[in-house]
Amino acid sequence: MCEVFQHKVETKGIDNVNVRCLTLDREDQLGQTFDVVFMNLTLHHIEDPASIIRLLAHYVAKDGHLLIFDLVKTEISPLFHPRSKWDGVFFHGFTIDELKAWANATGSFSSVEVVQVYTVDKVDDEGCMRTHPVQVLKAKKM
Known about the structure:
Elements lengths: L1 H10 L22 E7 L8 H9 L2 E12 L24 H10 L3 E15 L5 E13 L1
Parallel strand pairs: 1-2
Antiparallel strand pairs: 2-4, 3-4
């Protein structure tokens, strides 16, 4: 996925984006902060979302933004991934309250909001087309 995003940045001539794909496990790992820290449809694969949000908050520069896109928790959100691929899926979407609480618990952000931004249509294990809403956690660093 990182290569796909990098390709889009290059082909569109975007020169103010630095694509980095890595595993973060320490607050001091990169030695710098960023105007935007972005995560797309990954949080539900992380066993402890509160911890990763707390960790990512350290990498957001003053007045910068943390943007986390992930599934809205619904009755059908468990159908997003086929059952055969549930290993490594720790959550089947999130509520607005969960995302807001985790971001606010960091004490790092002056504003936190969660809004639905798009949908993903996928065929489930039974061959039915399902529409899955995706939301974004937008948090602005103090």
